Each structure stands twice: as C-alpha cells, then as structure tokens.
C-alpha cells in the first residue's frame, strides 16, 4: 500500500480572531486568496460572539509553506495580537 505524503493531500489552515477586527474580514480574505494562487483558496469564514475566523484549503504543497506569507498579510492589516493561525494540531501566533 502506498502512503500519500501530506503534500499530496488537501490541507487546512484556520485563522482565529478572538478580538474585534478593525477592517472587514473580506479584505483580508481577498489578499489571502491572491497569495494562494491556484495552490489553495479561502473557503469560508464567520463571526460570532467569541470572535471571527477564516478557513483556507491548500491543494498543492505544504500548508506550512504559507505560514509566513499569511503572517505577513495579517500584520499588514494590523490584526489583533490574540490572532492565531492553526495548521494541523499546531497553533502559531501572528506576532512572535
């Protein structure tokens, strides 16, 4: 039996904003879609009492390859300091 590498499987990235955003989430989503190109896409998002989120599917390459570009975009939008990027079971702060 051949085991697929993680780069051959669809992967997911979740961005959680626990504090209120100062800008519309759609502006962030548009910039994220731009950097993902044909290797992934923003597939959802939402907001509620506990904050908001953006969901990203990665179709090609490793999700961790997108960590720094995503961080860069989030920093450009001055997202709150409690914003977290989740890839698999790992949580990453935007601001280190």
Automatic annotation (TrEMBL):
Protein name (Swiss-Prot/TrEMBL): Uncharacterized protein
